[in-house]
Amino acid sequence: MAHTYDYVIVGAGSAGCVLANRLSADEGNEVLLLEAGEPDESDDIHVPTMFPHLMKSEVDWDYSTVPQPGLNGREEYWPRGKTLGGSSSINAMMYVRGNPWDYDRWADLGNDGWGWNEMSSCFKRMEDFEDGESVHHGADGPLHVEQEHPYGDVTDTLIDASVEVGFDQNEDVNAGQQEGMGYLHLTVEDGERQSTAVAYLHPVLDRSNLTAETGARVTRVVLEGDTATGVTYVQNGVTQDIAAEEVVLSAGAIDSPKLLLLSGVGPATHLEEHGIDVEHDLPGVGRNLQDHLVASSAYECTGSEINPGEVLCQVTGFERSDPDLPAPDLQYFLARVYFMNHGFDNPEEGEGMTLSTTLLHPESRGRVTLASDYPFDDPVIDPNYLDEEADMERLVEGLKRTREIAHASALDGHRGREVWPEEEIGSDDDLRQHIHETVQTIYHPVGTCKMGDDEMAVVDDRLRIHGLNSLRVVDASVMPRITSGNTNAPTIAIAEKAADLLKEAR
User: Fold this and answer.
1) Catalytic annotation on 444?
2) Model pTM?
3) What is the dihedral sign for C-alpha 491, 393, 287, 467?
4) Whole-angstrom distance, CA of residue 313 vs CA of residue 319
5) Catalytic one among 136, 280, 444, 466?
6) Mean pLDDT across the stretch 389-404?
7) Alpha-carbon distances, residue 128 vs 139, 187, 190, 412 (angstroms)
8) In sequence order, what DSSP letters do the residues of 414-433 get, joined into one string?
9) Residues 1 and 229: beta-carbon distance below 8 Å
10) Most exposed: 13, 52, 76, 288, by fewest CB within 10 Å?
11) Could you read off the pLDDT of 47-67 as tens digits, one per residue?
């Protein structure tokens, strides 16, 4: 390892592309970005309406959980991006910051500098909001965010139906006040996806101090005593060692803890089970896994045709199931399309609409562990869905609300037969059974390298691995508690914050 980089970033996803841009802006930093996937050259990546076709494609890690008792023994499919931009290159482009309470709670857990006042500035800095700069939005950032899209006639009607059953209409779900129903913000510009690769990485690839390698799969972090000195990766069948002053893991909530475990950093007993030398006994690695589950009702959609270029999920909303809660605990997605079992079980004929509810603050906790010491084996993913009864009860309440919206008179001209669950289902027990049989991830795994100062924390509030030097984690895995909404925008904001922390440490 003759040549030494200032920073090696593992993973060119939602966080890694941000770091590559911000750190290489200083000509004195030499930055290497390593991505296991290939370049984001597929046309399907960049056309917003094509995102369902990216599932189980060559740009998807195509993970699965272990059988889940709470899901009637089902193994749940977990897509994760395997290309430049990571999951921001295959997701549904929904831009939701979360609730200010989320970040203040992070700070209350002992993470100085991560409260809403600090994080709101990161959101504004990263935004190029279509309506320009305001108290709530930025306009000079790399990431274009817009709210105006080709709307079909069903979209406004879905909001009207929500207002009819008691929701307020929310003109901006990212302006601090989440509650109510409104249009989604999307990371789209001129009809094309704005992944972090498009927004942050591609514009700076010509910098002489930034090297981005694709098809480069990191297999371990190299440790000398308590200090990270580089990484080992495999590219085109050739193993290479790279030296760095600072190693930053941005491989996501599945692969960042996996890589730490392969490197001998994690719970000693688990490492010993797989014959891995214990470099640093850190019990929280891979624990604290949280995810958002979504339960849905689906209906035939009548009296309307989909417009060319129409983004088919444009409505979201937030609600408290208990008025005494500090923040909304339920999120809704109202879509002008069938979305049953990740879209794989949609009816072959006809058009539909799907009304979904998401449990924002699950009490159940899972884990990511190793299947073996072989770095190319998938990890064992056990989200432990619905282990806590309270999670099921909130989903039942949310599902009742989606059906209430669907049967509002505003939708009489568009609502056909309820196909999922069947119309005769009505009792709470029936709804619980429907949830056990059909509930799915909405693709928001976080928390497996959580930030904090307790015994199960993996990183401190400067995102440094506890007990080790020159090694940090910067991605959704550091969230101590999952945010109130889609997690892509918060992950990008985490990377913006981390870039500041890394610059301050130089």
Assistant:
1) yes
2) 0.97
3) positive
4) 18
5) 444
6) 97
7) 4, 10, 13, 38
8) TEEEEEETBTT--SHHHHHH
9) yes
10) 52
11) 998 999 999 999 999 999 999
